[in-house]
Amino acid sequence: MRREEMADLTAFVVVAEERNFTRAAAKLGLSQSALSGIVRRLEERVGIRLLARTTRSVAPTEAGERLVQRLSPMLRDLDQSMADLSEFRDKPAGLVRITTVEHAAKTIIAPALKPLLTDYPDITVELTVDYGLADVVTDRFDAGVRLGEQVAKDMIAVRMSPDIPMAIVGAPDYLRKHGAPSEPQQLIDHRCINLRLPTSDTLNAWRLIQDGREVRVRVEGPLIFNTIDLILDAAVAGLGLAYLPLDQVEAHMENGRLVRVLGEWTPPLPAYHLYYPSRRHTSAAFKLFVDALRYRGPR
């Protein structure tokens, strides 16, 4: 295969995966018109339409999707081979792409990045905060961070936290008006603030202990968010009860802005784990990132 043909195929895969000419052009360092010409030239060469275009979207055709599925693993292997060369440099370097939930990003990953990036300034870490269960292979992430029970069995999983204490909280004004629930069944009478989970398009169930066993309770209320920061703000404002990691509400509990309820019925969540596919070759930068996040128990 000629060098320009390989470049055209690479450009096509980027457009198909980004589903947007503007983003793909920026990623490739090309103008949109040049990138459009490359794709058109490729389609003329193979004699098949590879991308379906409208004024608002771009998506691979059936033939284009089949080509992407064949080419993407090959291109990832090439990228990995180039990344592996960084091990021969004086200091590890390269991009590490991670999909994570915001609580893990704020409380575990962010604190670990300062010493890592100080010691290894040639490493770049890209964090994408998302409550969806991302396919790290398809979406070209190096790894993901989720609760241990959410990690697929075919992934390598590295524990990166203790179990996560949770709390149900409400503002004093809210509790004076609506009363404090004394058992889980009473949540049905309360205004609860929900978290939307994008993968299943459902609301996050609250985990509670009932009759000696853990149950997942679906609650209802006036507000639904996709970020815990907004849920916390709404709870402090007295708009309802919230189910949040304890470390995110402790300061508000100490200053009296929030009150915890149903504490004895609220079990911790399973620990966060870093997960990634089994690969024979991983870059030095990624190995250092994994080691920086590995949970080593209480200190």
From TrEMBL:
Residues 4-61 form the HTH lysR-type domain. This is LysR family transcriptional regulator. It comes from the Bacteria. The lineage of its organism: Bacteria, Pseudomonadati, Pseudomonadota, Alphaproteobacteria, Hyphomicrobiales. InterPro entries: LysR-type_TF_proteobact-type (IPR058163), LysR_HTH_N (IPR000847), LysR_subst-bd (IPR005119), WH-like_DNA-bd_sf (IPR036388), WH_DNA-bd_sf (IPR036390). Belongs to the LysR transcriptional regulatory family. GO terms for molecular function: DNA-binding transcription factor activity; sequence-specific DNA binding. It holds the Pfam family HTH_1. GO terms for biological process: DNA-templated transcription. Keywords: DNA-binding, Transcription, Transcription regulation. PANTHER family: HTH-TYPE TRANSCRIPTIONAL REGULATOR, HTH-TYPE TRANSCRIPTIONAL REGULATOR PGRR.
